[in-house]
Design brief:
By secondary structure, the chain is an alpha/beta fold. It has a single domain, classed as Divalent-metal-dependent TIM barrel enzymes (TIM Barrel). The chain has helices at 17-27, 48-60, 81-98, 114-128, 148-155, 169-173, 178-185, 215-225, 246-249; strands at residues 5-8, 31-35, 64-73, 102-106, 136-140, 162-167, 189-194, 231-233. Strand 3, helix 3 and strand 4 form a beta-alpha-beta unit. Helix 3 packs across helix 4 and helix 5 (148-155) runs parallel beside helix 7. The N and C termini lie close together (6 Å). GO terms for molecular function: isomerase activity.
């Protein structure tokens, strides 16, 4: 099975959108996760005219915008509920304006536990009630909630347009078997991120298949689930500048046949 391929602009941070589109077209990774931050071409500070121009460029370039990758942290205690919800909704409005169906959010708790879970549930329910049409929020296996079981403790208490992103590295690096992640995330899974690294502690990005993440098992799990969404390479060279350039990493495509 060949899933449609995407990449995150985290791997080409600051690259103008025209060049991002050209990279996508030249490599045939035609989906995009757009990192939303002040140092990127896409962020919540764009004017309506700038948003319309960006959407026109992306649409005419033949790429599919999947996700606005925000840095909203729904379980973080250092911000208020109102601040968190407003930030998430601002990113949801950006996603709507760019034609993206999803906004990525992180858990981001300072300390995991029942209070952090309750905070995330409360905020995600508030966000879900106010999302623009056509946009859903996806909570990623990451930071304070790296495993599928962590994410599901939260998502099982949410009503509305909220789902999960399975970032393959974080459940694996913290010891959750792929079979467990697959089972618990199945009802919520909307998007997946693929990557490879040398070990759970040495996380410089490596081309797919060059590290030790059990990618074949991951692909098999997705096939067994009947997953039909996109597969996005999250090449974290923003945080690991020693990694090879994204364009080189995109030469290696996921290899799975059923």
């Amino acid at each position: 099975m060949n899933w449609p391929l995407a990449f995150s602009t985290l791997g080409c941070s600051g690259l103008p959108l025209t060049d991002v589109v050209e990279l996508a077209r030249s490599t045939e990774w035609l989906g995009l996760e757009l990192r939303a931050a002040d140092d990127e071409p896409v962020h919540v500070g764009l004017s309506p005219r700038e948003r319309a121009a960006a959407r026109e460029l992306l649409d005419s370039g033949g790429v599919t915008v999947l996700t606005v990758a925000s840095y909203v942290k729904v379980a973080r205690g250092a911000i208020s509920d109102d601040e968190c919800v407003a930030d998430a909704l601002a990113h949801a409005d950006l996603a709507r304006d760019l034609g993206a169906p999803f906004v990525r959010v992180f858990p981001g708790a300072e300390e995991p536990g029942p209070e952090a879970d309750a905070r995330a549930v409360r905020r995600l329910n508030a966000i879900a009630d106010r999302l623009p049409d056509g946009v859903s929020v996806l909570l990623e296996t990451h930071d304070s909630h790296p495993q599928g079981v962590d994410i599901v403790r939260v998502l099982s208490q949410i009503s509305g347009k909220v789902g999960a992103i399975w970032d393959v590295m974080h459940p694996w690096r913290t010891g959750e078997p792929i079979a467990v992640t697959k089972e618990v995330l199945a009802p919520y899974l909307k998007h997946v991120q693929v990557k490879d690294v040398l070990s759970p502690t040495e996380r410089t990005p490596l081309p797919l298949g060059a590290g030790t993440i059990p990618l074949e098992e991951f692909y098999t799990a997705l096939w067994e689930l009947g997953y039909q969404g996109w597969m996005a390479l999250e090449w974290e060279s923003k945080w690991h500048p020693e990694a090879v350039p994204l364009a080189e990493a995109l030469r290696v495509k996921p290899s799975f046949t059923r």
